[in-house]
Design a protein that fits this description.
Blueprint (H helix, E strand, L loop, with lengths): L3 E5 L5 E6 L5 H14 L14 H13 L4 E7 L2 E10 L9 E8 L8 H15 L4 E7 L3 H9 L3 E11 L5 E10 L2 H5 L1
Parallel strand pairs: 5-6
Antiparallel strand pairs: 1-2, 2-3, 3-4, 4-5, 6-8, 7-8
The chain binds coenzyme A (COA).
Length: 188
């Protein structure tokens, strides 16, 4: 699904939101490792990015051509600052309405409005793809992300107190959130 949007950040810098391309594979891999080092709130550890560059190139190319999935990158001064995307959860009749949303921004770019813009962009893409529900799971201590999601209309529908088990043995509770995309249609 095609997406392109220039935006201005809270600090006045210009930022381009656009689809991740196959040619972004090297920097997308580096971005993945960096963002996963900078927070303990993501699903995987930095060393768990096992995808090689060729496979990542293929995946980014397929995602750009997909009618359902999308990966949108934010570029500031030509540098990859963050990325977010939607993935169809399961391709079967009873679940084709559900997509999962994921986002991470490099720490040096937090608080500038990139998370807001990428979330808005992904919601728009999910609607355009015909999804009726966007879903996510977030660590309950991740206040910034929970605030971001609530701001965009996501609501909590459950918790999993043993959602993540860290390598040091700590549990991380997950908050399950969802956004109904056909809300306005149903109110009419
Ligand atoms: C969570 C994250 C995506 C927010 O992105 P961001 O670009 O810093 O967010 P923005 O500057 O666009 O802020 C958007 C909203 O998020 C919330 N938010 C962002 N930073 C916050 C903070 N430090 N404290 C509280 N709320 C915060 C606010 O609701 C904010 O809206 P506001 O500016 O109107 O108050 C970013 O911090 C991040 O990548 N964190 C690490 C990875 C991660 O946790 N991903 C989510 C996994 S579920």
């Amino acid at each position: 699904m095609f997406f392109y949007q220039p935006i201005v950040l809270k600090n006045g810098q210009k930022c381009i939101l656009r689809n991740a391309e196959a040619s972004d594979a090297v920097r997308h891999h580096a971005y993945f490792v960096q963002t996963h080092k900078e927070t303990d709130f993501l699903l995987t550890y930095p060393d768990e990015c096992t995808m090689d560059i060729i496979s990542l190139e293929r995946q980014l190319k397929e995602t750009k051509c997909s009618g359902t999935d999308v990966e949108i990158c934010a570029f500031v001064d030509g540098k990859l600052a963050g990325s977010a995307g939607n993935n169809l959860i399961r391709d079967c009749a009873k679940m084709r309405h559900r997509a999962e949303f994921g986002i991470s921004i490099k720490k040096e770019y937090w608080g500038l409005g990139i998370g807001d813009a990428l979330t808005k962009a992904c919601i728009e893409c999910a609607k355009n793809a015909g999804f009726l529900q966007l879903e996510l799971e977030v660590v309950s201590e991740n206040e910034s992300a929970i605030n971001l999601y609530k701001k965009h209309g996501f609501v909590e529908y459950g918790r999993n107190s043993r959602g993540f088990r860290c390598r040091d043995g700590r549990w991380q509770e997950l908050v399950l959130m969802r956004l109904e995309l056909d809300e306005n249609d149903r109110k009419i």
